[in-house]
Amino acid sequence: MERTLWYKDAVFYQIWPRSFKDGNGDGIGDLMGVYEKLDYIKTLHVDAIWFSPLYPSPNADYGYDVMDYMDISIEYGGMEAFKKVLDGAHERGIRVVMDLVVNHTSDEHPWFQASRRGEEPYKDYYIWRKGADEKTPPNNWDSLFEGRAWRYDEERGEHYLHLFAVKQPDLNMDNPRVREEVKKIMRFWLDLGVDGFREDVITFISKREGLPDGSKLLPAAKGMSHYSNGPHLHEYLSEFRDIWEQYDCVTIGEAPLVTPRKALEFIGGKRPELDLMISFECMEGDCFMQEYIPHRFSLVKLKLIWERWQKGLRDKGWNFLYLENHDHPRVISRYGSEKYRVESGKALAASYLFQQGTPMIYQGQEIGMTNIRLATIGEYEDIQTKNHYHRYFTREPEAKRMERIWRASRDSARTPMQWDGGEHAGFSAGEPWFVVNPNYTEVNVADQEGDPDSLLNFYREAVRLRKELPVVRYGSFRQYERLNGKLFVYERRSKAQRLLVICSYSEEAVRFRAPRGYDLKKGRLLLHSHGEEIDGSGFTLQPYETRVYLFQDRRPRAEI
Ligand code: GLC
Ligand code: CA
Asked: 53 C-alpha vs ligand 2 centroid, how far in Å?
């Protein structure tokens, strides 16, 4: 099958299924609910859905602990419901991408059960080591979710590695049989008609031989340099490519710590090992490495990160653009302003939707959902959230510890989708599995549908425009006002068109002067959040105001 690179023109929508829409009233989002909402998804003009894991799972990490890679969880409606959604999506011209979680499985996966009993061929499917004794782990690596990265198993009499939760043992990718399993899983879904994979922490799958200790100086994540971009990663990804290159699909690799230069090792060249990479740098506008190590939001830092990626991948690779996902809390509460919720939501949307690359919108982002602030840690669900609370900064006063949770918890991105102002926000006829953000009476899809100035309709229009304008796909990227801490101004330029995007990140009015060579009066204002006035060579932006201008420099060929 010929690979068409369709993803370059696509906009993705991410669904975290448990909180999207409950179709059968048991309080848990499911595929019946997704099916009901396919027409809604189509109205966003998106081309593809990425589903966070739908597989059977004990949900220690909500689906990222997989028990069976070739089935769909009964909670979500099983295989039948999935096929219905797949067909329904395809009928509407929407592709479907699955989450492929192969760095680890659930400890309840039959492979792990057999492995801990020492049964062939599963004995070496995981990473087992003796350690000096039961209490002494084989090395000093930290788990990213729960204490140390090793757990002693009574049955086997050895320790197993888990970079994430205790219930997420790492697969031994050095075992060729394990790699054959991965290929089998890929083929299974691609043959079923799925259009690609988002590959979970894929840059962690190859661990350094001998599993040496990590630097003792690190306060957390010890050992990461020995498994991030490990020694055989390229080899293994290239093996996987042998499978997926036979299909017209997309592969998107999740890659913590990746830089533009590093990314090109994977997505550049003639035979890339992945089509796209999810970098975390665009999440570092208000933190180091992770939301739990915060600093004040710096627009300049964020702008330089965006610029580095736009320029770094230009003509060599392709960007994956996003502002939120199920791991990163709501962006209005972080980079924007809850006080200017709609305005800052629009500024954020225009800031990334007109960059070069493939953008993704996370469920609820399009209506401007915000973070939750639950009173006690006991009300939170997410394993990473709880681990942080109980493991780090434990000497701080309670109020400060909770503040950390409020700004960083993944649960803020996982509250039920707010469909309307009715009971449980229209998410479920029953009691939802997790709290609904109390702002659902003001922030919901139904209210925004009919309002031409709503954030939802702004997203629709922005996505529609980006698909209509070739300059967004092909144009070069240039920033103005690079070091201005209040404005993000960027240009996309092709032979015939220039697009000028102007976004304020300030709660105060800010004066904007058009760059040299720009006569705003000659531009077409394609999208705007406030007024249209221009005075002289510029205008004064209201708080979080956004404008997108198009300048037609030459007539497009067809018109000549
Ligand atoms: C990825 C997922 C995250 C999950 C982790 C372990 O980072 O996005 O949700 O917890 O991997 O699978
Ligand atoms: Ca349900």
From this structure: 15
Distance 97 CA to ligand 1 centre (A): 16
* For ligand 1, atom 9: residue with the closest CA: 327
Pick the atom of ligand 1 nearest to 165's CA. Answer: 6
pLDDT tens per residue, range 451-493:
999 999 999 999 999 999 999 999 999 999 999 999 999 999 9
Q: Which residues line ligand 1 (CB under 6 A)?
A: 61, 64, 101, 164, 200-201, 254, 326-327
Averaged confidence pLDDT in the chain: 97
Taking only the tens place, the pLDDT of each residue in 163-212 is 999 999 999 999 999 999 999 999 999 999 999 999 999 999 999 999 99
* CA 142 to ligand 1 center in whole angstroms: 16
Q: Domains, the chain, ranges and CATH? A: 6-103+176-370+439-460 (3.20.20.80), 106-172 (3.90.400.10), 475-552 (2.60.40.1180)
Listed as own residue / partner, the contacts of 253-256 with beta carbons closer than 8 Å and 24 or more positions apart are 253/199, 253/202, 253/203, 253/277, 253/278, 254/198, 254/199, 254/200, 254/201, 254/202, 254/203, 254/278, 255/202, 255/203, 255/279, 255/280, 256/201, 256/203, 256/204, 256/228, 256/280
Nearest protein Cα to ligand 1, atom 7: 201
